[in-house]
Amino acid sequence: MEVKIGEKAPLFSLIAYDKKPVDLEDFRGSNVVILFFPLAFSSVCTAELCQVRDELEDYNDLKANVLAISVDSLYTLRKFREEQGYNFTLLSDFNKEVSRSYGAFHEEFGLGMKGVSKRAAFVLDRNGIIKYKEILDIPSEIPNFEKIKETLASLN
């Protein structure tokens, strides 16, 4: 299933890198950027999330919370976050339900791997409505962060 712009975002509750549950509903009243990424420690995922880390002040200025989601375990995500100094929340979709519900899921990823999140970006407004969506079928591409920021600016 793939979500559409203008629809209410599917709600979820996932476990973060620090073993704490995070519910999307907790961000009601705030803009949210959801980033799905295939695999922690891979070169493109690291570069993508490092860009977000380095530009987090921009997202804060745009009154947005950033949530990054992969199918990696919370233990892998904790180590990834520590090593890269990420300053935003990493969530484990280990059971692959949230990636599927957003249409951001590779059944076949490559190198024989099955069941990995696609690289994707969603912007949700304060009411949880999807205002921007970008699902990339080519794992080496990264989301258009300028369009994400433009969308956030239009919501403020």
Shape: globular
CATH H-level homologous superfamily name = Glutaredoxin
Query: Strand portion, in percent?
Result: 25-35%
Structural class given helices, strands, pairing? alpha+beta
**Strand sequence of the main sheet, in spatial order?**
2-1-5-4-3-8-9
CATH architecture tag: 3-Layer(aba) Sandwich
How are the secondary structure elements laid out?
Elements lengths: L12 E4 L4 E3 L7 E6 L6 H12 L1 H6 L2 E7 L3 H11 L4 E4 L4 H5 L3 E6 L2 E5 L1 E6 L5 E7 L8 H11 L1
Parallel strand pairs: 3-4, 4-5
Antiparallel strand pairs: 1-2, 1-5, 3-8, 6-7, 8-9
Can you tell me about this structure?
This protein has helices at 43-54, 56-61, 74-84, 97-101, 145-155, and strands at residues 13-16, 21-23, 31-36, 64-70, 89-92, 105-110, 113-117, 119-124, 130-136. By secondary structure, the chain is an alpha+beta fold. It has one domain: Glutaredoxin (3-Layer(aba) Sandwich), CATH 3.40.30. The strands form 2 sheets. A 7-stranded mixed sheet has the order 2-1-5-4-3-8-9. Strands 6-7 form a two-stranded antiparallel ribbon. The radius of gyration is 14 Å and the shape is globular. The model has no long low-confidence stretch (mean pLDDT 94).
Question: Which tags fit this structure?
Answer:
single chain, 156 residues, alpha+beta, seven-stranded mixed beta sheet, Glutaredoxin
TL;DR of this structure?
This protein has about 160 residues and is α+β, with helices and mostly antiparallel strands. Helices cover about 30% and strands about 30% of the residues.
